[in-house]
Amino acid sequence: MTGRVIGIIGGSGLYRIDGLADVEWRRVQSPFGQTSDEFCFWTLGGQPVVFLPRHGRGHVLPPSAIPFRANIDALKRCGVTDILSLSAVGSLRKELAPGDFVLIDQFVDRTFARDKSFFGPGCVAHVSMARPVCGRIGDAVAEAGATAGIALKRGGAYIVMEGPQFSTLAESELYRAWGCHVIGMTNMPEAKLAREAEICYATVAMVTDYDCWHDEHAHVDVAAVIKVLHENVDKAHGLIERLARDFPREHPPCPIGSDRALDVAIITPPEARDPALLRKLDAVAGRVLGKQA
């Protein structure tokens, strides 16, 4: 078993975590470009935690401009073994009301303008995404939420749209017919890249509004969304703090194989691989590329 390092990716409204001791903000370099912001490093009860504001402090990056590859690669370089993503979403179900926290277990990716893989021409890989979320992190988050007095609803499909515009009514009704539960703009390709980097990943979706399908909510109002975001921030801080205190310090093998996702994923034989791309993959895929060289 290896030691755990928790990575927290904060979504809309969660740009910093205040009131912590031994906090250090610093830039982490990545061959895939600049990250969304500096990373915040801190320790709670001996547990190392790395925090990244997904949109940058001050919310300066729209969803399509988030440097997902740089973010995940840099977290890997920091030794992160487990990622908890916190994301603002709209609800596609009456039972999921604004203010609810939902532990997602599936995704539908409808994005189209983003770099979705670390691999490509010169080194091709195909990882499994059948089970995109680590249930062990989900268990830990559910326990932390109960201890912190935060009710979490477990299970649901998160559809990720490109944005930055919100859905049309026809789109919203289509996503409901598909069986999706919440909608947002940020967890893809983030979850796919975490799998390629062999990092366990889970999402807490923080509901800010009903999407435009709801009879009493004809359109999504940014002011109303921000109001709920602010109300959710304190709960999110409490959840993160409790998780960091209680998370097991050792990292046993992932039950769904997230930490071994590349074992059978790389299809390009060693003699055909592009050395320039391999150098960029030193953190993400170094564990398997070293064995196969």
Average pLDDT, all residues: 92
Number of helices: 7
How do the helices and strands follow one another from N- to C-terminus? EEEEEHEEEHEEHEHEHEHH
The overall strand count is: 13
The percentage helix is 25-40%
Uncertain segments: none
Provide the structure class: alpha/beta
Task: Give the CA-CA distance, first to last residue.
Answer: 25 Å
Estimated radius of gyration: 19 Å
Sheet of most strands:
11 strands, mixed
Oligomeric state of shown chains: single chain
Shape: globular
Beta-strand content bin: 15-25%
Description:
It contains seven helices and 13 strands. The chain has helices spanning 68-77, 135-147, 169-177, 190-196, 222-246, 275-280, 286-292, and strands spanning 2-3, 6-10, 24-26, 39-44, 47-53, 82-91, 101-103, 106-109, 152-154, 157-160, 182-184, 200-210, 250-251. Helix 2 crosses helix 5. The protein is globular. The relative contact order is 0.21.
Give a nutshell description of this structure.
This protein has 7 helices and 13 strands.
Write the layout of secondary structure elements.
Elements: E1 2-3, E2 6-10, E3 24-26, E4 39-44, E5 47-53, H1 68-77, E6 82-91, E7 101-103, E8 106-109, H2 135-147, E9 152-154, E10 157-160, H3 169-177, E11 182-184, H4 190-196, E12 200-210, H5 222-246, E13 250-251, H6 275-280, H7 286-292
Parallel strand pairs: 2-5, 2-6, 6-12, 7-9, 8-10, 10-11
Antiparallel strand pairs: 1-13, 3-4, 4-5, 6-11, 7-12
Helix pairs in contact: 2-5
Keywords:
single chain; 293 residues; alpha/beta; 11-stranded mixed β-sheet; two-stranded antiparallel sheet; 7 helices; 26% helix
